[in-house]
Amino acid sequence: MDIPNSRGRDSFWEAYRACAEENRVRPDRSPFYVNWARDFANFLPEKPLKDRSRKDIEAFLADLGKRRGIQPRSSWHDRTLSKKDSGVNIFKYLRREA
Questions:
Q1: Which helix (DSSP H) or strand (DSSP E) does residue 35 occupy?
Q2: 70-83 b/e with 16+ CB inside 10 Å = b?
């Protein structure tokens, strides 16, 4: 993750949560978006967020499907896979702000 200090990281993730809510994510669901985005940030730690591509996002989503204990649900995961750009859009804020 290329956000320097703890205070900077906290404000970054708070801004990410706010951005998700501005894009019609319910406030009770936005913490889940933050957690998935953090997982994505940690998925390729050697690659800065601003340099990540659509293929990196697709690799992350494919990896999620292989993780033990993670089952795709018809809500977010299926919608993401059925609307290719949705999976990409959820991470655009990360790349823009990193």
A1: helix 30-43
A2: eeeeeebbeebeee
Count of H-run helices and E-run strands, the chain? 5, 0
Inter-residue contact 84 to 10 (CB < 8 Å): no
Q: Give me the residue spans of the domains in the chain.
A: 6-97
pTM for the full predicted model: 0.63
| DSSP per-residue letters across 61-75 | HHHHHHSTT----TT
Secondary structure letter of residue 2 according to DSSP:
-
| Residue 48 near residue 98 (C-beta atoms within 8 A) | yes
Q: What is the 3 state secondary structure string of 49-63?
A: HHHCCHHHHHHHHHH
Contact 98, 50 (CB under 8 A): yes
pLDDT tens-place string over residues 12-70? 899 999 999 998 999 999 999 899 889 999 999 999 988 999 899 889 988 887 877 76
How far is 59 from 65, CA to CA, in rounded Å? 10
